[in-house]
Amino acid sequence: MSKKQSNGILQTAVWNVRQSAQRLGLDERMLTRILEPREKIVVALHPFLSDGKFVHIPAFVVRHNDTLGPAKGGIRMTPGVTLDEITGLSMEMTWKTALVGVPFGGGKSGICCDPAAITPHDKEIIIRAFTRAVRRHIGPEIYVPAPDMGTNEADMGHIRDCISYSGGTSITDGCFVTGKPVVLGGIIGRRESTGQGVVHTIAAACERLKLKLADLRVAVQGFGNVGGVAAARIVKTGAAVTAVSDITGGTVKEKGLDIAKLQEHVRASGGVKGFAGGRDVPRDSVMEVPCDVLVPAAGGSSITEANAGRIQARMIAEGANAPVTPAADEILQERDIFVIPDILCNAGGVFVSYLEYTQEMQREQMTYSEVEARLTERMRKTFSDVYERAQQKKSPMRWAAIDIAVLRVVEGILARGLLP
Ligand code: GLU
């Protein structure tokens, strides 16, 4: 497979692992072992929605690797989600959990449905149908789902309820799902943790690159749980968010957008388009505005060889999973743009999921300041590990990050010996 053909999330994930295996001198059998998913499940859901008619919804669960612990990763609900996309994302989760040092493997689920086109009630019906269909693949020792694109805290609460009451009890024995509402054993700060983690890595990068956080001009693509939170948190440091886009369009203000007002506008109108505090621009042009930091925080493969040459940022902080294709990555390297790779940049979410998991296993309750302190410390430490390896090997951050993760998983496989 050539770099140019590697445009989808799965192809990007496979490309990155193959390159890492080559750099690390892994043999072909070990490469196959870390490349091939342990389990791929395809189910058909046929729930009756509130209009009394049933629908057909394909859904997927992939457990890529569980060497270091139960598979961990979110449930993506989008109309076009495919088994390949979920497989690629589950691979990313393996490297993300290994890199950030939590005792999990990598997994991911997909539900083929447009959440924006259904009522909350119908969404609950679909989430419950999904949970029943894949119940035997979920558990604290098997696969622990969480929110991802198109799913949220409320959905995780329904999964938790569906599982506990399938056995007739109010609670489960251990943690079956993370990202739950706090009232059902969720953890304070999980919702903001991915976006907050993105800001921690940008701050750490600024220290190394001798940039002042407060002087940054930041462009954010995607204004959901990752991009929206990252934007709101980074303006608190004094930085200016000068451009934001979402599915409805883009808005730009060179002096800095008022993010609180933009959030109000989005709540009222459903998107950033038409925001009075900025200038409407086409959605894709936000990727190409002059800025210091670009935060791609929407779907995968949004930076390809078609637009990588036009990006005017000096740093890219990958809030999304797999936003940069391998061909685009090479262009960014040639242009000396500093990239904070996804498995580092957006690992704050799964790290706080880990805190939720341990909290529930021990029937404990953590405070927000404990969560925040542990998240800050872990993101900073993981950034340092990656930066130091990148400096030592004179390699891009992406290579250093995946190489550290692959080495940890390989070490785990060898430590397990002849066991499966
Ligand atoms: N969906 C998030 C991710 O891609 C979080 C996964 C989790 O918390 O398990 O990292």
Number of domains: 2
CA radius of gyration: 20 Å
Report the biggest beta sheet as strand number plus sense, adding barrel if it closes. Answer: 7 strands, mixed
Could you give me the name of the CATH homologous superfamily of the largest domain?
A: NAD(P)-binding Rossmann-like Domain
**Number of distinct beta strands:** 13
The tally of helices reads: 13
Strand content: 5-15%
Mind telling me the CATH class of the largest domain?
Answer: Alpha Beta
Based on CA inertia axes, which overall geometry fits?
globular
Mean of residue pLDDT values: 96
Tell me the strand order in the biggest sheet.
10-9-8-7-11-12-13
The CATH architecture of the largest domain can be named as 3-Layer(aba) Sandwich
**Structural class by sheet pairing and helices:** alpha/beta
Spell the H/E element sequence.
Answer: HHEEEEHEHEHHEHEEHEEEHEHHHH
CATH topology-level name of the largest domain? Rossmann fold
The residue fraction in helices comes out at 40-55%
